[in-house]
Amino acid sequence: MDISRKAKQNIFFMWLLVVPIGTFLVYRYASSKPIEWDLYFYFVVLALLTTIFPFFIAGATMILVQWVNLAIFLNYGILAELVAMQLCLIPLIYHMKIMKETRYKLYYSSFMFFVISIACGSFVIWLGYDIGTLVIKDVLIFGSIYAFLSIILNHVLLYVRQVATGLKPDFFTKDFAWDIICTMITLPFGISLFFLESYVGAIAFVLLGVPFLMITLLIRMYNDSEKVNADLNKASEFGHELAERMTGTEIIDMFIERIANMFPMNSAYIVDNINNQFVILRAIEDGVNKEIKFSHEDIKHSLAGKGYKKGYPILYNKQSEWIHMKPPFLTLDMQSVMCVPIYRNQTIEGVLILASREKHAFQAYQLKIVHLLCSYFAVSVEKANYVRDAVAKSEICELTKIHNYRYLDRQIDIDMKKLSAGVYHSLSLIMLDIDKFKEVNDSYGHHSGNLILQEFAQIIKAEIGPNGTVGRYGGEEFVVILPNYTKLQAMRIAEQLRLKIEQTPFIVQLDLADVSRDEIIFITASIGVSSAPDDSEEGMSLIRNADRALYIGAKQAGRNRVAEYVK
Question: How many whole angstroms separate alpha carbon 493 and alpha carbon 480?
Fold first, then answer.
């Protein structure tokens, strides 16, 4: 949650005016019992240890220090519990990942704990609790009130803070439910610690504290293993999803977006090495795709270039570990950084950089999972390249080296959809057929016929250039697709093609005679032209119309001419 600088200053002044003065007033006027400092020391140590070893439930961090603080309050009163709770902020600073720009969280937490200690303690004493009493009924009733009231008040203060910053939170959240459940579990421990310490002394901290801490550690270990398994399952699903993508662009886009969602990070970058030049292939910063460029030398001498050279994954937990080799694309507010190589065919192709503004944001097992995902990514990109090459090869005519019928059929469908969507204002199609091509084959042989087809295709391709798509439709028929060309413009192009073909000498090899020799011949072509949306609104109809114009308007009219489709 980002808040303004003024709001941070207000939080600090609120803490400064309330906590130090309030603590002094509690010392002077609040009801209390004389503190046995050696035992109080054990209470504080147990509270700190409990705070140091939290565990996680449903994604929430649970720090179950309340049961120790409850025992402190029941035994010594408000001041002793208040001081112990403030001391517990020391390990909480680590768990909250407090930095200079988030220091306000420390002051607000201190203020919040202070208010909770004062409010809950005062309320219970007002209800009639006698500090240090060993009456079981009173301890059970007032201890329960104190414990549950502290949880409720904690969430009330959090709710008020979120509302004050413009959010619309829910009060009864999963975190609130888990806090209630944990309080029900730990409440007996707190009351038992109070009674046991009162009767047997310091040994109570061993009898209750050690088992509680061991249970906490076991739950944490189990939870960590569950989290690792969950992340591995996500990684496996992610790998399958990558494998299903058919193009390199789809794979790259999906990879960077899913990586950004899977891990606690603020930015992600794929740095590729293309012809020994580092480029930033993809970048996401705070959930937004960015196009950024930096020089090869700047990237080479940063942790990205060094990670590429080393070839193994590296994890930096804080800025001081990598600032001396800061990449130009990382901002100075970043702390934790992952640098993971991307291998393909045992050769490093690039690196993935993940960065977070929090210290120790990434865990060691997450580095291994990211490394695994980079392997999935590299394999998927390679597969996509193979598929792309195979598809491209299947859509090229082996003889003429231009597009074949399969490609033309798909391209016409794509262009007709663009026409319907308003991307194109018109779409024209030219169909060409070599006149009397059978006679060429009969006179000069099929090899010569193939040479003519090859040169014929190159003439059309050279004349059309980047203005349209050229392909062999079948046999001696060729097709030209012209986006954004009207029928009149297409007729002019077709006439230019007809003249070019008529005037071009074709060299053939006369293999059917006794002595093989080269011979120059001239050929002509008949051409039909159709246009959309004037003549048709369907791709196949556009082809049929051009074919009809070719045979009726050009072939039957004497060949070597251009004809347009007429409804």
Answer: 10
Instruction: Quote the tokens at residue 473.
Output: 């439709």
Min mean pLDDT across 151-155, 247-251, 260-264, 450-454 is at 247-251
Only one residue has tokens 């079948």, namely 474
Looking at residue 101, what is its pLDDT? Answer: 67
On whether the pTM is more than 0.85, the answer is: no
SS3 404: coil
SS3 301: coil
Instruction: State whether residue 486 is helix, strand or coil.
Output: coil
Beta bridge partners of 530: 429
Tokens of 68: 């120790």
Q: How far apart are CA 72 and CA 36, in angstroms?
A: 11
* Kind and range of the H or E run holding 62: strand 60-62
Contact 468, 532 (CB under 8 A): no
Triad 394, 396, 397: Cα angle to 5°: 115
Tokens of 272: 């590729």
The two three-digit tokens of residue 455, written as one number: 């040169």
DSSP codes of every residue in 252-310: HHHHHHHHHHHSS-SEEEEEEEETTEEEEEEEEETTEE------HHHHHTSHHHHHHHH
State the SS3 of 40-58.
Answer: HHHHHHHHHHHHHCCEEEC
SS3 assignment, position 531? strand
Q: Which residues contact 352 (CB under 8 A, 6 or more apart)?
A: 259, 268, 269, 270, 271, 338, 339, 340, 341, 342, 370, 374
Q: What tokens were used for 7?
A: 């709001």
